[in-house]
Amino acid sequence: MAKAITLKDVAREAGVHISTASRALNEETRSGLSAETADRVIATAERLGYQPHPLARGLRTNRTRSVGMVVPDLISPFIPPILAGAQHTLSEVGYSLLIGSDDESSPRTRPAVETFLERRVDGLIVANAHLEFTPPDAVQRREVPTVLVSRCVADGSFPAIVGDDQAALSLVVRHLVELGHTRIAHVAGPLDISTGLFRRDGFINALAEEGLAASDCRVFEAGSFHSEDGHAACSRLLDSGDGYTAIVAANDLLALGCIDAIQERGLSVPRDLSVTGYDDIALVDRLDPALTTISLPYEEMGVVAGRLLLDLLASDVETVETPHEPKRLAPTLFVRSSTGSVGST
Amino acid sequence: MAKAITLKDVAREAGVHISTASRALNEETRSGLSAETADRVIATAERLGYQPHPLARGLRTNRTRSVGMVVPDLISPFIPPILAGAQHTLSEVGYSLLIGSDDESSPRTRPAVETFLERRVDGLIVANAHLEFTPPDAVQRREVPTVLVSRCVADGSFPAIVGDDQAALSLVVRHLVELGHTRIAHVAGPLDISTGLFRRDGFINALAEEGLAASDCRVFEAGSFHSEDGHAACSRLLDSGDGYTAIVAANDLLALGCIDAIQERGLSVPRDLSVTGYDDIALVDRLDPALTTISLPYEEMGVVAGRLLLDLLASDVETVETPHEPKRLAPTLFVRSSTGSVGST
Lengths: 345, 345
Description:
2 copies of one chain form a homodimer.
Chain A: H1 7-14, H2 18-24, H3 35-48, H4 54-57, E1 66-71, H5 79-91, E2 96-101, H6 109-118, E3 123-126, H7 137-140, E4 146-149, E5 160-163, H8 165-178, E6 184-188, H9 194-209, E7 219-221, H10 227-239, E8 246-249, H11 252-264, E9 274-276, E10 293-295, H12 298-315, E11 327-329, E12 332-334
Helix pairs in contact in A: 1-2, 1-3, 2-3, 5-12, 8-9, 10-11
């Protein structure tokens, strides 16, 4: 993504706060500033070649300049960076972000969205869609532009910004194959959420890419993305007696639950089993063993979702044909000490 | 704090979403529901003895039912739980939460607040106040009720919900004294923020409580609350040659920076130096050494701040005399393996 000159750049260069820069560049609000400040900002914007987002110019007056964002849970480690990216992007053009949470309960997503509609938000960002997400009618009729982030829906009925799970699982499985592993199990997240399903499918596809026998590489589904359910799934995996030497977990918390279950049986990571995560949450690089995991650009995901929504708001028509293909952001594999060669000790 | 029956309890008991319960209990919105659902919710509310917050009843029509919350940075580990607590509390009575960030830059707090005022929020929650925070005039004149959370201001001009830093530092220093430490250094956070200042003062008071000589126990101020600045402060501390055996850091990230600096010199925690943190952020209990630290009830802090703001909005007058004494929530000390007896090996 090319780095465009943003209002933030103009503000920094002109030595003013972003909201001052915003006012200076808007004819309606400029009068509240000193002429000297306004002139400096305008000159800086011209010099840097700043192109305001269309919304920052001709704003229709029946808009509330607010966007509602529904998240599964504010405390999930990957949500705050998405929120931060979206908030910065929207505030740059004078949009405010309202937040709502459905506490990771699928039947509650819709009421959370309805609350935003009652507040007449101009658009919606939904970070907690289940695959079968059915939004309120106004959203279905595209009266309120909506962008999904982090998770997408099965029928592609909404544009979505997600991580590239297939690329991620290919990186992980290739890494394990290079270490000599052939019996690899997957601890999957809930399969009614795209991140659970796509990572499971990505795992199965990656096995084929690497020429591994699917019959040697079972999937154990966890009840949630939390560590206790990783522990439970890993216990079933170890009880199976199938002799796995590596576990690919669908997120970091599941991986930590797996490591707990392994260590409780007196086994060692990575000597007896290698374990990988997904998300690269804070401090997993400092654990012992440090977690080999996938990093997604979550803050960028929020930025891209915010920009896409602003584009939809500016175009004011549903120009894009459905089904939408999700925009997938590239993952990075961080190799750390939770993975090692088969029989490394 | 006694556990009151909340709208959430009513909704759960009646088997409906919280927004449905809210509508059922409001005469103006009840007609949108089936009579059966509305009756069930009303009966449940009566049976449980639910008392709606005054705001949920007589709402003045010139209100926007929105609250703006300014945070230093959405990615700081303690912010999401505060946000979650406030959001749940406000949404229970039909209030929406708008979020803004000043990127931990004190001159930007005021513009962030101004943006909310332009949007005519009914109230403000400020989680990033510097000690000398000077809000816009409308806030100074109390036209917009404002509650501070996590940090407070020097002159007590606003009600605030914070952690009890004095109690926390007393717990930490007593723990270290019980382990035999007498030469204890403090790696302080920025002293223009209440959490930096109060923890430093708490440390100094705790030394006196324990009868330690202040001359043996220096304070090293870090430039921020981030680990790199903890590393830098700890390097100065180690260079001092003063023979400290324990370090009390003003937050967990500073503590992790200290541990890095100690280990880089070939020294060991806790054998050569014990280190304590503050915040109990995710995964510090799984590190090696696991961090001895203070836990604050951050989610509760958000809940209490939200309730206090709703009280101010309901009373609609500035009944409380200034200066306000901050409400301080009690800390918990978690003793883990980063602290040990002097000369334990």
